[in-house]
Amino acid sequence: MPDTLDAELFRRWMDAMAAAVEREAERLTELDSAIGDADHGSNLRRGFTAVAGALEKETPETPGAVLTLAGRTLISTVGGASGPLYGTLLRRTGKELGDATAVSREELARALGAGVGAVARLGGAQPGDKTMLDALLPAVDALGSSFDAARVAADAGALATVPLQARKGRASYLGERSIGHQDPGATSAALLIGALAEVAA
Amino acid sequence: MRMLINVPETIVADALRGMAAAHPDLTVDVENRVIVRRDAPVSGKVGLVSGGGSGHEPLHGGFVGRGMLTAACPGEVFTSPVPDQMVRAAAAVDSGAGVLFVVKNYTGDVLNFDMAAELAEEEDIRIAKVVVNDDVAVTDSLYTAGRRGTGATLFVEKLAGAAAEEGEPLERVAEIAKRVNEHSRSFGVALSACTTPAKGSPTFDLPPGQLELGVGIHGEPGRERRAMMTSREIADYAVDAILDDRRPTGPVLVLVNGMGATPLLELYGFNAEVQRVLAQRGVVVARTLVGNYVTSLDMAGCSVTLCQIDEELLRLWDAPVQTAALRWGC
Q1: Are B107 and A38 an interchain contact pair (Cβ–Cβ within 8 Å)?
Q2: For labelling alongside A78, which of B168, B214, B244, B317 has CA 20 to 30 A away?
Q3: What whole-number distance in Å separates Cα of residue A71 and Cα of residue A88?
Q4: Which InterPro entries match (chain B) (predicted)?
């Protein structure tokens, strides 16, 4: 496992996320069909394909610049709620990382914590509202220990949204009928953390 | 489900190319997904920009033209457009008098328009915003994303658009838009689910012989499912749901709106029942519009919107409008 994480690793993280979204697009859409409007997979696929393309074209040289460009690209291409939310997550995390050419896992954990905080403020969601926060918050905590712990925590957080009632976004209109379904946003957030663990391993 | 498409990925761009060909008085930027009145910016007049996911046609692109929207930004199917589109639209329509964003209350639309407003203001474009939230089927509470924007969007765009056409300043146009939204309530009913092109199968499961009362324009569930009802029974239910929420104290505009797959023959029959209930409840109808205006792809069903008006709003309703989907007095 690398001691410091450089721009190249962050680029591979985004590429791995693009591949994960491609692989899981149908599942994300299926989950979104149950409690949303059946487009989470196709929207994120469009966004992360654009991110991979933008990173190839511009080759930013610091981890912060990689995430800032990725976030900006998501905001410009995804739309819906997931565009601004994922875009803000990556952009804010990137800005927190500053100009460092390489960062430690602990520094990334802190920056990601700030990114998740920005998502919470933008979306106005609380833990337990059945959103992407339910995967991201435990992942940030666990990232202090290891990448793999973060992956496990994110997966568990996504799975733990099944019995919850949605209180934000389109799924909230379902009220109690949202119970029993895994949240698509928490599921894709777990993919993002999983992609990080994959490239950092 | 058989669809008249090439591939799902190009459905929005294909439709925009077709709109451009059919409506030479519109400037359609297919690449950047912005539909603009050809004569924009109109000197001294406030610009009206709306947008939202595609799949609700003619909303919003069909309402661009003299007396209504100055520009519209279509997103992917059922997905809010991105801030880049809105900023581009605002820049294209701003004459210096400012721009009103008409936003339907969905998490994605609100977030993207908020981001766009910040970016546009950095470019020295004055922005005001109205969020439309007229759907009484949803309880507005801390525990939902709030009431959805549905049929009242047409009333807001028509009435605020007419005010902008008359040369009212941004503050007045925004005030009228907000007044229209506050005085409007809607209720929708689905007789069948809709099918998004990307998924290719119905987005929710509505067994034959049942209907969804209080449905949203993306097929979001509403209040309850029941065994199929008659047009008469549905009109009673829908109008009473609206009146229970807000009882008008003056005459109203009525929109009897089709969701996409319900024939006009049925909509007009349903309108007769809506007018009957309104008369029975003592609500005076000033004007009525019947048709498919705020649709949900191929969903069968309808919605009712009531907007209480005053003299000014009635005059703005009757003012000339010249768009692809709504056109009178010109």
Answers
A1: no
A2: B214
A3: 6
A4: DhaK_1, DhaK_dom, Dihydroxyacetone_Kinase
Q: What is the mean pLDDT of chain B?
A: 95
- Contact B216/A at CB under 8 A: yes
Q: Which of B34, B111, B203, B297 to mutate to test the interface with A (most CBs of A within 10 A)?
A: B111
Could you list the residue range(s) of the whole structural domain that residue A151 is in? Answer: 5-200
Whole-complex ipTM: 0.89
Chain-chain contact of B138 with A122 (C-beta, under 8 angstroms): no
CA distances from B53 to B44, B56, B194 (A): 30, 7, 14
Domains and CATH numbers, chain B: 10-182 (3.40.50.10440), 184-308 (3.30.1180.20)
In the stretch 109-168 of chain A, residues with CB closer than 8 A to chain B read 122-123, 165, 167-168
Q: What CATH number is attached to the domain comprising A22?
A: 1.25.40.340
Distance (Å, whole) CA B12 – CA B197: 11
Round the average pLDDT of chain A to a whole number and report it. 95
Q: How many CB pairs under 8 A join A and B?
A: 101
Tell me what pLDDT residue B21 has: 98
B285-311 average pLDDT score = 98
Euclidean distance between CA atoms A78 and A46, whole angstroms: 7
3-class DSSP assignment, residue B57? coil
